[in-house]
What does this fold into?
Amino acid sequence: MKIVVIGGTGLIGSKTVAILRRGGHDVLAASPRSGINTITGEGLKEAMAGAQVVIDLANSPSFEDKAVLEFFETSGRNLLAAEAAANVPHHVALSIVATDRTDNGYFRAKVAQEKLIKASGIPYTIVRATQFMEFLGGIADSSVDGNNVRLPPILFQPIASDDVAAIVADVALAAPRNGIVEIAGPERAPFNEIIARYLKAVGDQRQVVSDPEARYWGGRVDEHSLVPLGEARLGRISFDEWFRRSRASA
It folds into this structure.
């Protein structure tokens, strides 16, 4: 099976490509460096030829509200048009749990991307993931207030990138859902507790403060803004196991 992975050299993309290649599939790891660019359209026609699945894992180089929206809309339109012309039978895209329930610029851009997919007429599966464990340090840094890390007291259920890649690969080999699959980590706990646990593990002395008025990447959130509300497919890697692996590979 020929599978094109857009963003195939990124965090999730490189892991997904490796899994699919081990399964004996013909996998094209597409990126601007390989001459395939979803913003300019370069190389898309050639890449789509004979593809049975396209997995969109591309990410915006800028998280500024206008730039990220333009990225996902432009990339989505170009990619979906090329897939339609090549009669690709399955489009898989990675999105975010609660992207339509959380008000910040990045999440709004992912909603726009999802709308393009649903309107394209191409059979699809959207995989919505909770936040990656690999992003815990960045989340803490984004919430710094003096010597403290200020976070809203909401539920959090981060997932390891290895689990994300494994599930994305599995979804890509299955029939299109024409719907959404939500995935999350195996452990759910208060946001502040998980970030505090991470900071302690890495020896960071900053204190985590629970603040109901704190925002998440500029957006207001409530108790369930970052976790699945209904059925979700859970990863297998716990925080402790993920941290052990990340230390071992560092």
